[in-house]
Amino acid sequence: MRRWQRRIEPLHKRLCGGCHLTRQTVDLLTAAGFTVTELDVFYEERAPKPFAADSLGVALSPRPGG
User: Fold this and answer.
1) What percent of the chain has pLDDT over 90?
2) Which of 18, 35, 17 is nearest to 26 (CA)?
């Protein structure tokens, strides 16, 4: 799936406001200091697989009160 996502990502970014199909969201959050406490990774139903991968979760701010 990732191969297809890499192929279509340049067009997808232009058409969909800069959305990256291959961005590793969880890795970026943890690198920024957030702590991911809940995570559900899934494909949306009835959507083409290259566009349907989603991550839904909770990340705690690295700053107290942030």
Assistant:
1) 56
2) 35
